[in-house]
Structures are given as structure tokens and as C-alpha cells.
Amino acid sequence: MANELIPFCQFVFHERSYPIHVKKVTAGEPYKHHGAREFVPLTVDQGERTKIKLTFHSLDPELPRLKGKRTNRVGDAQAWFYHEDRILLFWRAALSEGYEVANPLDDQNLWALWHEGEQFLRNHFPGITLLITPAWNNQYDLKQWRTFLNRLGYTEWSPVGLSYSALIKYLTKPPAQDSPDH
Question: What is the tally of structural domains in the chain?
């Protein structure tokens, strides 16, 4: 089943729409949390996580292949699902070189990969409480990238790790903060 191509979303290239399919590969692995070095707000020190690799392909022979490419792979994504905390670290979703637009705010295909990628992963790992993603992407201007993530719903900074290193999107109500008694 890991090599199965599943219908995913529409991709626009040179003003023409192409259907995109996704291939998912997963692998379970144990992890140990390393505290301040990580920005995923885990509540347990060790547990099981699933690494997810998604690749996005066009089966349409009309989609122009980019120079030097043997397949019509238009992008990929990578994530980790932490089972005990029900947290999904959505590390990245990116378009293959030549298919991307310089400003992520103007890239409808990147938007589709992120939005549909999130939905795809939420369907495969029900009960996710929050999504977290790095707040930077070396491929894009930092301000544009953070605005792109904010528009996707990643609006809160991770409470752990280096300051301003990751943004969170809560799927359930965030935990209440302890307040001092007055």
C-alpha cells in the first residue's frame, strides 16, 4: 500500500490544471525527547512516533517535465506524528524546483500542498491535538514565509525550544495556562 498513488489535489502550471496524486511512506520509530533542543511541546520523555514521507506526482503526460527530471514529481512533504501527545510535526511541504513561485503568498500550488497535506495527515492520524511547523524556510523570505504560515492557521509560537523557532496550529482548545492566585 505504501507505493499506491492516491488522488490528492489539483495543480496549476502555465494556466492549466493537472490532477496530482500522493504516495505515502511511513515508518514507526522510538524517540527520546531532548528538552530545550527541540521545539515540539511534548509531555513525555520518550515514546513512539511515525515518520511520514509524502511525494506528490502528476500522472498526466501533458504536464511538462522539467529539464533533467525523469518523472513528474512536483513536490514532497515530511512529518512526524507523536502518538502519546497526538502532535503532528509538519516539517515541510515543498514544490520541486521549477514548479515553485518566489513568493509563497502568491503560490496557489504550495498553498494546496500544505492545506491538503494537513487534511490527508489528519485523516490518517485521527485525534491530532495540534500541528507544529518550523517558522523558517530557507527557500523564502522570512516575513513572507511566516505570513504564509499565519494564513494557514499557525499563529502561536511554540512554548519550548529556541524563541521564535516554531509555530503552532491548535486543532483542539489549547491547554489553560496556570495563573498565580491573587
Answer: 1
